[in-house]
Amino acid sequence: MRVGNVDGAVLARLQSDAPLMAIATDGVWYGNGANAHATRFVTVTRIDGHTEWEFGDEAWIELPYQIRCVIQSSSATQANDAAARIHAVLNRQEAAITATGFLTMCCALDFPIRYDQLDTANPDIRWQHAGGQYRLWVVPTGG
């Protein structure tokens, strides 16, 4: 299925935002793609999906994504700043998310994500996570 084009469009949209990339200097990654030494990055994970059918064709596809900035820090400030950028870039910004073969109908925040985590190898290290679960609705265009 071509839904991978939508995944790529979400990644590209986040990667194109200079203020976000200034915070997440180790990049934007799909799933667990960040390298082992990364300490400031964004992860994008499609967590489910639903296709609505009409007259035997795909009418639209609903795609929820978990998108969060992960920063090694004892302070949540920069992770929260990154979450604000993610929100500004994606929430209700349908025209900015362009995927070959799809028209983006809507992109909206379902709920915010914010937590900290102790490092499994060194409990003196904390990881800050901030972002949200966003839901995209796209229409296949046959392209």
Q: Which stretches of 5+ consecutive residues score pLDDT under 50?
A: none
SS summary, helix count? 3
Topology as a string of helices (H) and strands (E): HHEEEEHEE
Largest sheet: 6 strands, mixed
Instruction: Give the end-to-end Cα distance, rounded to a whole number of Å.
Output: 12 Å
Helix content: 10-25%
In terms of structural class, how would the helical and strand content be classed?
Answer: alpha+beta
> What's the shape?
elongated
Give the number of DSSP strands.
6
Radius of gyration equals: 16 Å
Q: Can you describe this structure?
A:
This protein has one domain. Strands 1, 2, 3, 4, 5 and 6 form a 6-stranded mixed beta sheet that branches. By secondary structure, it is an alpha+beta fold. It is 22% helix and 44% strand. A hairpin with a 7-residue loop joins β5 and β6. The radius of gyration is 16 Å and the shape is elongated. The model has no long low-confidence stretch (mean pLDDT 93).
List the helices and strands and how they pair.
Layout: H1 4-15, H2 18-23, E1 28-30, E2 40-46, E3 50-54, E4 57-72, H3 77-90, E5 102-118, E6 126-140
Parallel strand pairs: 1-2
Antiparallel strand pairs: 2-4, 3-4, 4-6, 5-6
State the gist of this model.
Helix content is 22%, strand content 44%. The protein has 143 residues and is α+β, with helices and mostly antiparallel strands.
Which properties best describe this structure?
single chain, 143 residues, alpha+beta, 3 helices
